[in-house]
Amino acid sequence: MALKKRLWQILRATNRNDVLSRFVNLFIIILVIFNVIGFMLQTVKSVNEKYGLILYWFEVFSVSIFTIEYLSRLWACSIEKNYRGIWGHIRFMFTPMMMIDLLAIIPFYLPFIGVDLRIVRILRIFRIFRIFKIGRYYSSLQMIKGVFSKKKEELVLTSVVMIIMLLISATLMYYSENQVQPDKFSSIPESLWWSVITLTTVGYGDVFPVTPAGKFFCAAIAILGIGFFALPVSIISAGFIEEIQTRKNGKDEVKKCPHCGKEI
Predict the structure, then answer these.
(1) Angle of helix 45-76 versus helix 85-93 axis, rounded to 10
(2) pLDDT at 61
(3) pLDDT by residue (tens digit) across 54-75?
(4) Cα(213)–Cα(35) distance, rounded to whole angstroms?
(5) CA-to-CA distance for 201 and 23, rounded, in angstroms?
């Protein structure tokens, strides 16, 4: 139990004065960064031809460390009351960060269990999830998670509104342009491409209305798109400001003496 508790303390990195914990977590951070760099370098043909073997063995070493870390977390999680027992371990396995850890290592093992290599090539993209492992060790990255968690209702609402707008605009353009441009607005799902490009104000120009009704709807939809697609950005920005202010106030309360006002 003492070993499990100590392992949990090291991996959780809750004590900044714990030298071993800081070393282990710094090592993991550096390893994650180099893994992402290695992943990108493997897509460069000249580099892969010359240093492919080195990159492969570095991958083997990294996955071994990440696997040990994953299993260690899974074993030591029972220190927390919420994760005791079989169901507690299963619940811990399905936490967001543990899922990221699993997605980061599982593509490496798939060829050994007989999975089609063509599928493995696609799943290798999951190795990029290793960059999210850094979120365990930096409180500033944890803040992003906090912002999205607090603003999830507003973000869900704006996402629903945007989806509705996309469907309405695609429907309007289909009925306005289908008879004139059956190749470009052949169906409502096909018209969704135009809706996404217009509402996001990208405007490739490959598909555009030619009828008076289509042009009118296009102008209205483009103007509405500027406002509605700016909503999620403003919500997230406000969330960051609130989170920073909350953390700043929290630090002030913890670090200052209530009597003399000096830092503790």
Answers:
(1) 150
(2) 92
(3) 988 998 898 899 899 889 988 8
(4) 53
(5) 47
